[in-house]
Write a structure and sequence with these properties.
heterodimer, A: 310 residues, mainly alpha, MetI-like fold, two-stranded antiparallel sheet, 16 helices, 1% strand, B: 273 residues, globular, cell membrane (chain B), membrane (chain B), transmembrane (chain B)
């Protein structure tokens, strides 16, 4: 109105401090509960830091020891990567199938959506108890059901070969969150696109491959990243369902770090372990993001380009 | 869209199959919790209890200070929810409705914090809370909530970005100050996303196990999740009370979810894009 840009105008009106007042809780929290601890743990990772005596600076010895002189580090890393390699694709596929099912125009979908999501609101403690009881090798219902169809069920939680699978199955029970994210995205695809495709004679499978999947690639990206991060940090179920056993077959990386810190009180070493995983997660996320430019399509991009042409 | 009968049968078949996976474990816990000791430890398993043992719940509840645990869980859940609602709405409003220096850098930083694995900050946070004298109190579980949480702030900001700027400009012309605008105009508008983050936070905090595990030592400070896990750890063979308390622990989040389902479903659709 006065010939100034809108931006300058609103600055004058509200004063410069007001916005910072609004965001100040987060800034304080970020410094005290995130950035401070983050920096401090990096520093700690270069120290021998027992809980009882003084810390001594040891340079990169923690990292050296981790890579060259700690077989458990590699074992735990391997188990965790194996878990992620099974869990992430499985979870994505199940979530996608469920989301497709509950977007079908048939009766009772709301009911099924509720059932599928319900385990996602249950505590890890409860999940571990519920599935621990189902997998119980003496009284468990699962092996009983398997025996009815002539299968001699394995000793799930006692056999090192099977224990990791029990954690996969119990974790996948909470797939509802991811299902819901896919569901709301698929519902947002305009029905006309499918109708047009159907008129052109595209089969449901063809429609799924050519319409549904390309439309939800940003959501797939989001779900891949969040589930990779979650899988690499799985801890609650490991502590409660298997305790890392049998024979350390489920001694996940999260448990390895946790025990180094709170059981063996090697705080500097545990910090180095944690920083290593942080960097792994950063690199993995970056790789996934980089690759995403080839398979993720954003609606806005198409629109923007369309506008430019005009 | 019309669907063939065959198509429908396949869909319901799959739905039924998946329902077994998601529903049966709940049913099995309920059935187990109502059995007698002899019934629960029989093989082949008896599916139904002969006479439902409702007293199992009372016995289980009285065998440990579960009342205290429940109280602690309620305190932590209520306080953190309050803290998140206040702090996140303020911060999200700041990010969504103002232009200021370093805004974009700060917001990217906020989003980046979501990627930090919790075990990187776990040890220094423990030491920090120890320094404050907060170990073995509920404070480490409660206080950080009053400084906001990146994901909730993000959700609220996305919501606030879609509201036209005219709203506060009109109020400014009428002489309202910035905080009045926030409380009188925007807080009521934010009702739906605020309910969403309250629900998400209630579920998260009620179910949290690792936080209480690290910070709480005395039984009198335990939350329900930690108390149940500790009980199970010591009394592995007491399946009846374990099942009974597990059910008690599941009920509140399931009820909250059933009531707030609409907000969760709608909130999910807005969060990604």
């Amino acid at each position: 109105m006065f010939g100034k840009s809108k931006k300058a105008n609103s600055y004058q009106l509200v004063g410069r401090k007001v916005p910072y007042l609004f965001i100040s809780p987060w800034i304080i929290g970020f410094l005290v509960f995130t950035l401070g601890p983050l920096a401090f743990s990096l520093v700690m990772s270069f120290f021998d830091w027992p809980i009882t005596s003084d810390a001594t600076f040891i340079g990169i010895d923690n990292y050296k020891k981790m890579f060259t002189n700690d077989p458990q580090f590699y074992k735990s890393l391997w188990i965790t990567l194996k878990f992620a390699a099974i869990f992430v694709p499985l979870n994505l596929v199940i979530a996608l199938i469920l989301a497709l099912l509950i977007t079908q125009p048939v009766k009772g979908m709301k009911f099924f959506r509720t059932i599928f999501y319900m385990p996602a609101v249950v505590s890890g403690v409860a999940i571990s108890i519920i599935w621990g009881w189902i997998f119980n090798s003496e009284y468990g219902i699962l092996n009983y059901i398997l025996s009815l169809i002539g299968i001699d069920g394995p000793r799930w939680l006692i056999d090192p070969k099977w224990a990791i699978l029990t954690i996969v199955i119990a974790s996948a029970w909470g797939v509802g969150t991811m299902m819901l994210i896919f569901y709301t995205d698929i519902k947002g695809i305009p029905a006309e696109i499918y109708e047009a495709a159907a008129i052109d004679g595209a089969s449901p499978l063809r429609q799924f491959i050519s319409i549904t999947i390309p439309s939800i690639t940003p959501t797939i990206l989001f779900n891949v990243i969040t589930s990779v991060i979650a899988a690499l940090q799985q801890l609650t179920l490991v502590i409660l369902l298997t305790g890392g056993g049998p024979l350390k077959s489920t001694y996940f990386y999260g448990l390895y770090v946790f025990n180094n810190a709170f059981k063996h009180h090697r705080l500097g070493y545990a910090s180095a372990n944690a920083w290593f995983m942080f960097i792994v997660i950063l690199i993995l996320t970056m790789i996934i993001f980089k690759s995403s430019s080839t398979w993720v399509f954003y609606e806005n991009e198409v629109k923007k380009e369309g506008k430019k042409k005009k | 869209m019309k669907m063939s009968k065959k198509h429908k049968v396949i869909i319901y078949g799959l739905l039924g199959l998946f329902s077994l996976y998601f529903l049966l474990p709940f049913v099995w816990v309920i059935l187990s919790a109502l059995k007698t000791q002899a019934e629960v430890f029989s093989f082949p398993p008896k599916i139904f209890p002969k006479v439902p043992q409702w007293h199992n719940f009372v016995d289980a509840w009285n065998s440990q200070p579960f009342g205290t645990y429940l109280m602690n869980s309620v305190i932590v859940t209520v306080m953190t929810t309050l803290g998140q609602l206040i702090s996140c709405s303020l911060v999200a409003y700041g990010f969504a409705r103002y232009d200021f220096k370093y805004k974009n850098i700060l917001f990217v930083l906020l989003l980046a914090t979501m990627m930090i694995p919790w075990d990187v900050t776990m040890i220094p946070l423990y030491m920090e809370f120890n320094l404050f004298g907060w170990i073995n109190t509920l404070k480490p579980l409660i206080v950080p909530a009053f400084f906001g949480s990146a994901y909730y702030i993000f959700l609220l900001r996305q919501f606030l970005m879609n509201i036209p700027k005219d709203l506060e400009n009109a109020a400014r012309i009428d002489g309202a100050n910035e905080f009045q605008i926030f409380f009188k105009i925007f807080v009521p508008i934010m009702k739906a996303p605020l309910i969403l983050i309250a629900v998400l936070n209630i579920l998260l905090v009620w179910n949290d196990y690792l936080g209480p595990l690290i910070y709480l030592q005395d039984q009198s400070k335990y939350t329900l999740a930690l108390g149940l896990a500790a009980f199970k750890g010591v009394h592995t063979l007491q399946i009846l009370p374990i099942m009974a308390i597990t059910l008690v622990m599941i009920v509140p989040p399931v009820v909250v979810f059933l009531f707030a389902q609409k907000y969760i479903v709608e909130g999910t659709s807005g969060s990604i894009k």
